[in-house]
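Hi team,

As requested, here is the filled-out complex form for the pyridoxal-5'-phosphate run. I kept the field names the same as last time so the parser does not choke. Let me know if anything looks off before we queue the next batch.

— J.
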Amino acid sequence: MLTKTKIYLSSPHMGGTEQKFVNEAFSTNWIAPLGPNVNGFENDIKQYIGGEKYVAALSSGTAAIHLALQLLGVGQGDEVICQSFTFSASANPIIYQGATPVFVDSETDTWNMSPELLEIAIQDRIQKYKKPKAIIAVHLYGMPYKAKEINAVAKKYDIPVVEDSAEALGSTYFGTYCGALADMGIFSFNGNKIITTSGGGALVVNTEEEKEKAVFLSTQARDNAPHYEHSSIGFNYRMSNVLAGIGRGQMEVLNDRVTARRQNFEFYKKHLSNIEGISFLDEPENVYSNRWITCITTRSYEAREQIRLALLEEDIESRPLWKPMHMQPVFKNSVHFTNGVSEDLFNRGLCLPSGSNLTQDDLDRILSTILKTPNL
Ligand SMILES: *Cc1c(COP(=O)(O)O)cnc(C)c1O
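And here is what came back:
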């Protein structure tokens, strides 16, 4: 290889028609927030995930989680259960609301929230007169969590579920799209996600009223009056019409992106799964993962670091799996219910480059670097 370019973990991948929608926004001067692309993008997402839900396009996935908690009435002094094995953005909005996170560890089949631990956590909190106000479960790396079991526990105790589907657009669970499996769902269109608007997100809700409330809150909560009248506190969280144009173009290629990411996974699995000590997370039955990021687990922390550093040497980005929230300095005093699963994954796991625009040369370069690592 003559020149070696840097290989990223997950980089944006435009399809081609994004520019057309953005140009439309420019030529019609729909540069301000709101406009036809926002409605079009919302409708594209709505149809994609089955047509039954209502979708509000927002400025980020984090904003979507924040508004979900707001709509569910989470406030000062409330407790919210959150999957510990996740990105901090799943949990931060709990703090924005003045509430307290209670973290729950993962199970080994999907690496997501353990339904058993969830129930233990709920019973403990109820016993202490702190019944959780909501549950935030995450489809990490695009792998659907055990929604039937989680929903059953949530229903038993009558607690709403917010589905953090930031990484799972295009994944399905028993035939239903992730994002449409709970009381409320969210997507992210950040630059590293399976499709991107450069920055953006969406909230998925069950009723038109909830959507209208979300849009109202996301546009500074202006009451209906000729002057600026406010009877509640709002946010500036709406997606802009320019960025929604990128999203409309991206929706046209979403299924291709899922296919490409799944092919990355198959490539890595084919060539690495025969190495003792390296394993992959298989799809449980009736589950289809978008394989946003291909993750491996290694024999030990040392083996993981050897691979990571060898890749770094070759200008190839890789990263340890998410550091669980209950281990984060910022949440060190939080209540948590753990079983060692996420801590172990954090120690031994590695995210491999997984962009839908990786070339065969890129993949070969990554593979040969890993295979050259001594003491795998
Ligand atoms: C990316 C991500 C978010 C936040 O989305 P943004 O659009 O970046 O705000 C939330 N949860 C998870 C699991 C994510 O990966």
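Two things worth flagging: The longest helix spans residues 254-272. Residues 254-371 form a domain with the Aspartate Aminotransferase, domain 1 fold (CATH 3.90.1150.10).

Thanks,
J.
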